[in-house]
Design goal:
Elements (H helix, E strand, L loop, with lengths): L10 H12 L5 H11 L10 H16 L7 H13 L1
Length: 85
């Protein structure tokens, strides 16, 4: 088998390759990714029902004590403590 040679492609070819990979997919989450990346930075983002449900669940777990939040200082202390061992 001959070795694979990576040849650079121009922007137009790259766009066509991306489109060819995106068009056949039915994966909703995959299709949202390019849209999120290409949106102008000042454009607002609306949470989906799934996003809201996930955030609500996280909030319930936090309020019930099943999860905990940490300050940046606490995280640094923990990480540096693990690195020193």
């Amino acid at each position: 088998m001959p070795p694979l040679i990576h040849t650079p492609i121009n922007a137009a070819q790259h766009k066509i390759q991306l489109a060819q990979r995106i068009l056949p997919t039915e994966d909703k989450h995959l299709l949202e990714e390019p849209d999120l990346i290409l949106k102008p930075k000042n454009q607002s983002y609306e949470l989906s029902d799934e996003d809201i449900e996930e955030l609500d669940q996280m909030q319930k777990e936090h309020k019930s004590g099943k999860s905990k939040s940490y300050t940046v200082a606490e995280v640094r202390k923990y990480v540096y403590g693990k690195l020193e061992k």
